[in-house]
Design goal:
Structural class: mainly alpha
Order of helices and strands: HHHHEHEEHH
Shape: elongated
Number of domains: 2
Strand content: 5-15%
Number of strands: 3
Distance between the termini: 14 Å
Radius of gyration: 19 Å
Length: 165
């Protein structure tokens, strides 16, 4: 399913990402960003579906910022939990592959969810199938799909639902 993004919207999005990634609006850096963004818009007008599904509403932009904050918070918590687990001489792991449901219908939103889960230490998305994700969990307190969904997916999903159509 390929969705087209209006060229001006795509150009603006690419320039904003360029500025954020470079952390500079120096004339030389900005000029390169404008040229690269322009070339991408001309060469790939319909194949950048990663940014086309994201809503550009005030609510979605706030949700995007909140999503980044939530992800970073979960990342720190998971790193601390994994460090404590690894440093524990008993190594109290209870691994399992759990099946979790997602309400997300946008393929990019599902991909972002799967990647966010994978980037969080202690969890790894191993498969996406229809409305389900299969996640390897290093310490699985439950294998019940509903409980696992609440523990792993629900926090990320509440922001992604606002961000993607």
């Amino acid at each position: 399913m390929s969705r087209s993004m209006p060229p001006l919207k795509l150009f603006a999005t690419l320039v904003v990402f360029w500025i954020l990634l470079n952390g500079s609006v120096a004339p030389g850096t900005l000029a390169v960003g404008l040229v690269v963004a322009g070339a991408i818009v001309l060469l790939f007008p319909v194949s950048l579906s990663v940014v086309s599904g994201h809503r550009l509403t005030p609510e979605a932009l706030v949700a995007s910022l909140a999503y980044v904050g939530y992800f970073l918070k979960e990342l720190v918590k998971a790193n601390v939990r994994m460090a404590a687990l690894v440093l524990n001489p008993r190594l109290p792991i209870d691994p399992a592959i759990v099946k979790v449901r997602t309400r997300l219908t946008d393929p990019v939103a599902r991909l972002l969810l799967a990647n966010s889960i994978t980037l969080t230490p202690g969890t790894l998305t191993v498969e996406i199938s229809e409305g389900w994700l299969y996640v390897h969990w290093v310490v699985a307190p439950t294998t019940d799909p509903e409980a696992a969904t609440r523990a792993i997916v629900a926090g990320f999903e509440r922001y992604l639902e606002v961000m993607y159509a």
